[in-house]
TrEMBL record:
Compartment list: Nucleus
Provenance organism: Heracleum sosnowskyi
InterPro entries named among the record's database cross-references: HAT, HAT_Syf1_CNRKL1_C, Mbb1-like, TPR-like_helical_dom_sf, TPR_rpt
Protein name per UniProt: Protein high chlorophyll fluorescent 107
Ranges where the Pre-mRNA-splicing factor Syf1/CRNKL1-like C-terminal HAT-repeats domain occurs: 276-442
Stretches with biased composition (Basic residues): 27-41
Keyword Nucleus: yes
Length: 630
């Protein structure tokens, strides 16, 4: 590229690069040209030519003119500067394409390091499917009492997925199983912070924990937070309602249950079940049956709904209907320990001892680590067999779960009946050392007080009755037992004072039927308008639909049962053979094998509960407290 057409300008070639560069490998921008370059050079060249033409006659000015030309060339060389080309990428194999670039520039470019981003090892979280697998594995580990491994696995899940609420819930439940309330509370608190308070499951689990620990006000706040986080979280509404029921706030509980039905689409069996139990307690059995039917329609596999309904029918003396509902319960959940236990107790109370024993043995074969089944079976054997067999069953139950208070209380009651007073006292003391502030502890203190009363230790009996009432002041049995003690001692005035104290401090729950139709308006809004239009009373709707017709309920239950003998009875043996792969003739053998394999010698000995140093110290403190009571 030549800037001047004259001979003078031919020596001022600035930059003439090769015109065939490889555009993919090398990008060279145009040289920088100041905006004032062209007009300045043009005016300068014209002025030089005029000076040359005018200076020819004057020889004395040639030297001056040459010096001016040299100064002009030097200024132009300083002004026109070639900029370094910007390279996007450079490969050593492409050096032949840089031939047009100045050699010094090429050497300099080779020395300049190219930008290479640092390889930062980012710890990417695994796929979510790994979280699902880890949660399932932790559940299996906890089911096998391998709590330490489950805790470590869930801690890893929390580190990788801190914003997922499921690991917090699972870890808190594992701590609850080990009676580590403080650790569980800490996990729930961290989970609420990590999820920014938007996970209703964590709030609800935390509320249940606080309710269990007796912090009612804190539990209310946490249930409220759970419903704010997700108003469709039915477990929060139901748990809050149950809390208010236990506190005696019936209207508040009804309101919460109604909101649960409103927000959760009328498809939750637990709310229907709780409402039905409220109706049954208020002796409104027509409404209760309607609600039980709604619960079982929402979830036919809900064993709890069937069992609650069966209990209500048994209390009303409808034994045939209750038995058929128990059959539906075991069909809905064949391995449910509560179903087999409650059905066995029902048959035992009806005088069907062999049938009750068989049902309890089936439940034990399906749930060999449940102490309640063995405890009930031990009481049955004590009343209908020998005390030695009952002791074996009690000992086995206490080995399965040493912290289950009712086992120790029932065992102590049997020893008292057998005349072993010292053994009974030791067993009662063992029960209180587990937990001296629970409802079971109140029953234990009342039973122990009766023992001391019969043994003639009246002062100890009074202290035990007083301690029991400090835990549960609503126990009618304890108040009346204490009053009878005073009457037997000739203190009629004191006995009357104790009865008056019971009636004064008794919490009366006044039931109001006005709320019922409000709840049913949520279930079926058309019912109320139809009643007003036809001028029908409140109970006519249920009478018209035969909710109170026991025979219709029996026909419905029997007609839907798949395992019947001659259309009237439940084929229990065929059911356990087909559904549970159990041989009815081997139930006694299975029970005997459980006795021959002690828990301490089992291969899964890690399942056995072992007291830590903290738990041992707490038990010792409670034992000292118990002794001070006596």
């Amino acid at each position: 590229m030549k800037l001047f057409s004259s001979s003078t300008s031919s020596n001022l070639t600035i930059f003439s690069p090769k015109q065939t560069p490889t555009p993919q490998k090398l990008h060279i921008p145009k040289p920088f040209k100041p905006t004032h370059t062209k007009p300045h050079l043009h005016s300068l060249s014209s002025s030089l030519q005029e000076n040359q033409a005018s200076a020819e006659p004057f020889s004395e000015d040639k030297d001056k003119l040459n010096e001016e030309i040299r100064a002009t060339r030097q200024s132009l060389e300083e002004l026109l500067v070639v900029r370094r080309p910007v390279l996007d990428s450079l490969v050593e194999d492409d050096e032949e394409n840089l031939s047009s670039v100045d050699a010094s520039l090429s050497k300099f470019a080779k020395k300049v390091p190219f930008f290479e981003p640092g390889r930062v090892e980012s710890r990417e979280s695994p796929l979510v499917v790994n979280l699902d697998l880890a949660l399932y594995r932790s559940k299996v580990l906890a089911r096998n009492f391998r709590y330490q491994e489950a805790e470590e696995l869930l801690q890893k899940c929390i580190n990788y997925w801190p914003e997922d609420g499921r690991p917090y819930v699972a870890l808190g439940k594992i701590y609850n199983k080990q009676s580590k309330a403080n650790e569980a509370r800490s996990v729930y608190e961290k989970g609420c912070q990590a999820t920014q308070g938007e996970n209703a499951y964590i709030w609800q689990c935390w509320a249940v924990l606080e309710n269990k620990m007796g912090n009612i006000r804190k539990a209310r706040d946490l249930f409220d937070a759970a419903t704010v986080a997700d108003k469709k979280h039915v477990a929060a509404w139901h748990g809050w309602a149950v809390l208010e029921l236990k506190a005696g706030n019936i209207k508040k509980a009804r309101n919460l249950l109604g909101k649960g039905l409103k927000y959760c689409g009328n498809k939750n069996e637990y709310i229907y079940q709780t409402l039905a139990m409220l109706e049954a307690k208020a002796n409104r059995f027509e409404q209760a049956r309607y609600l039980f039917r709604q619960a079982t329609k929402c979830n036919p596999k809900s064993c709890a709904s069937w069992l609650a309904w069966a209990q209500v029918e048994a209390q009303q003396g409808n034994n045939l209907v209750a038995r058929q509902i128990f059959e539906k319960a075991v069909q809905a959940s064949p391995k449910n320990r509560f179903a087999w236990h409650m059905w066995g107790v029902f048959e035992t109370n009806q005088g069907n001892i062999d049938q009750g024993r068989k049902l309890l043995k089936i439940g034990h074969a399906l749930n060999p680590r449940d102490p309640v089944l063995l405890q009930t079976l031990a009481l049955l054997e004590y009343k209908n067999s020998t005390a030695n067999l009952a002791r074996v069953l009690f000992r086995k139950a206490s080995e399965l779960d040493p912290r289950h208070q009712p086992v120790w209380i029932a065992w102590g009651w049997m020893e008292w009946k057998e005349g072993n007073i010292d053994t009974a006292r030791e067993l009662y003391q063992k029960a209180l050392s587990i937990n001296s502030a629970s409802e079971s502890a109140a029953r234990c203190l009342q039973a122990w007080g009766v023992l001391e009363q019969r043994a003639g230790n009246l002062s100890a009996a009074r202290r035990l009755f007083r301690s029991s009432l400090n835990i549960n002041s609503q126990s009618y049995v304890t108040w009346m037992t204490w009053a009878s003690l005073e009457e037997d001692q000739g203190n009629a005035i004191r006995a009357e004072e104790i009865r008056d104290l019971y009636f004064q401090q008794r919490t009366e729950i006044v039931d109001d039927a006005s709320w019922v139709m409000g709840v049913f308006d949520i279930i079926d809004p058309a019912i109320d308008s139809i009643k007003r239009l036809l001028n029908i009373d409140q109970n006519s709707y249920y009478k018209a639909t035969n909710f109170n017709d026991i025979s219709s309920i029996r026909e419905e239950l029997v007609g839907s049962s798949p395992d019947l003998v001659n259309g009237s009875g439940f084929n229990l043996d065929g059911f356990i053979r087909g559904k549970l792969s159990l041989d009815p003739s081997r139930l006694d053998i299975i029970l005997e094998r459980s006795f021959q394999n002690p828990v301490s010698g089992n291969a899964n000995s890690s399942r056995i509960w072992r007291r830590s140093s903290k738990t041992l110290a707490r038990d010792q403190r409670q034992e000292i407290t118990t002794r001070s009571i006596i």
